[in-house]
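Dear V.,

Thank you for sending over the compound details. I've combined the ligand you provided, manganese (II) ion, with the protein sequence from our construct and run the structure prediction for the complex. I'm sharing the raw inputs here so there's no ambiguity about protonation or stereochemistry in the SMILES, which I know was a concern on your side last time.
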Amino acid sequence: MRVIICSHEADVDGIYSASVALMKYPHADVSFYNYGVDNFTKMYDYLKYESKKTRNGLVIISDLGVNNEVIDLCKDSIEYLVNNRWSVIWVDHHPWPRRALTSVRKIANIFHDSSGNKCATEIMYDNFMYKNKIAEQLSLIAHSSDFMTNIKNYDSRVSELIHFYRNNTDAKEKLQSLVLKSSRGILWDTDMQRDYTKFIKISEFQIKASLKTLAIKKILSFNVAFVFIYPYVQTSLFSQELFSNCKIDLAMLFNRNGKVSIRRNTDKISCSKIAANLIEGGGHEFASGGRLKNDARNFKACINEMKGAIIKALE
Ligand SMILES: [Mn+2]
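Below is the predicted structure of the protein with manganese (II) ion bound, written out as structure tokens.
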């Protein structure tokens, strides 16, 4: 049977959850996607095309959530696949609107954990590769990376490498090789080391350039950092660095495409509530993202737009 794994391109959890799925279905093809209607459409176009070519297949979608803007797209597309005798397994831990869960559950097999304590790799491990030693380690590393816990025990180089590969012209092949290696228990090798050394040279320079744009502002009772980030700066690790070096409660990072990443340093703020006030906003309480209406070159307008989103969320 033809098996296709579609996972989130963004981080360790996306990559390792695909690795665990690949351990279960070693002949599967793996591809990567991101949020937004355009990206989901790309994913479904590929799946529909494949389901026309081969009857009877299985799709495993991992670490991608369904939000309001894609519910109907997901429903229609999965129905199309089911009509071509494909089945769909969906593994995720992002908050889904109730309507999304009820409608997708009718046509796909959903493994969804909404407790906020599990990442996609852990759900994949629990349900498909339970007690397998490699899958277990992958799930522990992904948890630590997704929730930023026990960071000292965890090798952040893989996160940085994923970030580097995503911005590469051969992103697909590079990410696929990461999935394949980790599914075999290889977490680091000389190819990765060579790429990492390349990455570090550029990113160190870009981190310094990003820090020059740092503006800390008081909003209500919170200290908020606004930073423009260059492409090779990995947002979660960068904000972690900001939190340990500056007295801030919230970090709003935005890039040249107007993409915003929101990270918090206090439980009193909900990142997803702030994201809900941005375009295509979505994510978790502790980490979320969205897009700006303003041109990223207009720093002042961007900060004002983000400020507005924060104030609206805190009111
Ligand atoms: Mn995840």
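A first observation: The two ends are 52 Å apart (CA to CA).

Warm regards,
I. M.
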